[in-house]
Design a protein that fits this description.
single chain, seven-stranded mixed sheet, 18 helices, globular
Length: about 525
């Protein structure tokens, strides 16, 4: 007789592993099916050039939820997170830069170099952002109120309303600003200097194919502000050994609870019988039965590829076909013969390399960020792209040979799909050359130091990691795809419109980033049902 698991999970990314852990901890039998040869989804570490390893897709740590770290004993399972010595650096053309050093007083002094008024407003800005971030943190590990689902959902909405009623009028205004304004308009309430605003605005376009003037981009900034590292809020860090160290620790924790993990096991179809999901068919032909079928995939991929249209309600199917994906992301990993020599840094700053432990962002003003999007809309990619470089080997010497380095290049404003019959397969090398040349303008000699490179266009990200349109968030973080409307109004409770089918990936609340929260929340709802 065919074995039946309590839960079969499609996709061994971090949320799938988190969901599997909590289900197994509750005594359920769980099997995870991962298409690639290694678990981890987009949070993996791989050798991309001989003797050079890096986080090939997801590349930095902050949003991973502390409860999940504790529950899964990720540190006990090998995870070590190293904090950046400088949070971020924005080189300017020429010899100046703005940096975000660690510590409020240090940051205030840096901001004052550009504007005393902006430095004076810094505390008010952080207080307002932290106030809204705390609201979001309170809801990260909760299932949103689900429209049309009865009395319990009304109680959830009432509980949320009570939280909001505790805010003052000015705090309510700030919350509305965050969820509705563009990041540019939001920052105008606090800052006047273009370099200061540009630095803060960067987080509003990370994983967002749009302008800093696009309404809703203020929330994208906020989405990157609720994290913490080693108990310190708003800090970013590096997982020693790369992002794969996180998912390998998760896999060890899940397997210790009895979870079966199968790699090289791509799923071809969700099998539905009598209006209930009962199994999945692998591309190999194997059928795996489960009392519950759980998807860690982008919802658009799940319902567009694995679930036959005839099992989907008409309105749901139509809306899912128009679910918005596309973060404008182009990823590269490069093996370096030496550290880049940014002209904006003096000899002492280069010698300590502290500024190279954080994100080095080419995108020095709101105008630069806006121009990048506008030219991308016309051409398919920006003529002057936004580039965030991380050099994790400055913190972790396990990634490259002695004296050598690896760098992640996270690049923004590259169209999810090219028009006029063009394909990223034909233009990926041209775009990669442009990105290298862009960095070389600020760090002459960088291009010559590149020993090898790995290119992941939006199309490559979709093919390799299932990121539809290269979307690192599994769906745009717009107001119509957030909280109770993610992925769709009426299905924010991790339940699909087919009995026995659930969603646990970043296409559900609270959205993208390596948080683990969707997997945690989905497991709670599944356990209620089974």
């Amino acid at each position: 007789m065919q074995k039946q698991y309590d839960s079969v999970i499609i996709g061994g990314g971090h949320n799938g592993l988190v969901c599997a852990f909590y289900l197994a901890q509750a005594g359920k039998s769980v099997r995870v099916l991962e298409a690639r040869s290694v678990v981890g989804g987009a949070a993996v570490t791989e050798e991309f050039y001989p003797n050079f390893r890096n986080s090939v897709a997801s590349y930095t740590v902050s949003l991973l939820n502390p409860k999940i770290i504790s529950d899964m004993d990720l540190h006990g399972n090998g995870l070590d997170i190293i904090e950046r010595r400088v949070n971020n650096l924005w080189p300017h053309e020429g010899s100046d830069f703005i940096a975000f050093p660690v510590g409020f007083d240090n940051l205030k002094a840096e901001i004052a170099r550009f504007s005393n008024k902006d430095a004076d407003n810094l505390e008010r800005y952080f207080n307002d952002v932290e106030m809204v971030a705390n609201l979001i943190r309170d809801m990260l590990l909760e299932t949103p109120p689900n429209a049309g689902s009865g009395f319990l959902e009304i109680l959830k909405a009432f509980k949320l309303g009570n939280r909001l009623r505790k805010l003052s009028l000015e705090e309510e205004r700030v919350a509305v600003d965050i969820f509705t304004k563009s990041v540019s308009d939001f920052l105008d309430l606090y800052f006047e200097n273009e370099h200061v605003k540009g630095a803060f605005a960067f987080d509003g376009v990370v994983g967002f194919y749009g302008s800093p003037h696009t309404p809703g981009s203020a929330y994208v900034l906020m989405h990157h502000a609720f994290g913490e590292v080693n108990g310190k809020k708003g800090v970013w860090g590096h997982a020693k050994g790369g992002m794969g160290a996180i998912t390998q620790a998760m896999a060890r924790a899940a397997e210790a609870k009895g979870v079966e993990i199968s790699t090289s096991a791509p799923v071809a179809e969700v099998i539905v019988e009598d209006e209930k999901a009962v199994a999945v068919r692998l591309e190999s032909g194997e059928v795996v039965y489960g009392k519950t079928i759980i998807s860690n995939l982008n919802p658009k991929l799940l319902f567009g590829k694995l679930v036959d249209d005839k099992y989907q309600p008409d309105d749901f199917r139509n809306r899912m076909k128009h679910y918005k994906c596309g973060s404008g992301t182009f990823r590269m990993n490069v093996a370096l013969d030496a550290l880049p020599q940014f002209t904006c840094l003096n000899e002492q700053e280069r010698a300590t390399a502290d500024h190279l432990t954080g994100g080095i962002v080419i995108g020095e003003s709101v105008k630069y960020l806006d121009d990048a999007f506008m030219t991308a809309k016309q051409n398919g990619w920006s003529t002057e792209p936004i580039v965030e470089m991380l050099i994790p080997s400055t913190l972790d010497d396990s990634l490259a040979p002695e004296g050598k380095h690896v760098a992640s290049l996270f690049c923004q404003q590259f169209a999810p799909e090219l028009d006029e019959g063009r394909s990223w397969d034909d233009y990926r090398e041209e775009a990669a050359d442009l990105i290298i040349a862009t960095v070389d303008k600020y760090a002459p000699g960088f291009a010559d130091s590149v020993l090898g490179r790995q290119i992941l266009s939006p199309l490559d990200l979709e093919r390799t990691f299932g990121l539809v349109g290269g979307d690192i968030m599994h769906g745009v973080l717009s107001l119509d795809q957030l909280f109770a409307t993610r992925p769709m109004l009426g299905h924010a409770d991790y339940r699909a419109p087919i009995k026995g089918l659930y969603m646990c990936g970043s296409g559900t609340h609270p959205g993208g980033g390596v948080t683990g929260a969707p997997g945690h929340n989905a497991a709670k709802e599944i356990l209620k049902d089974i």
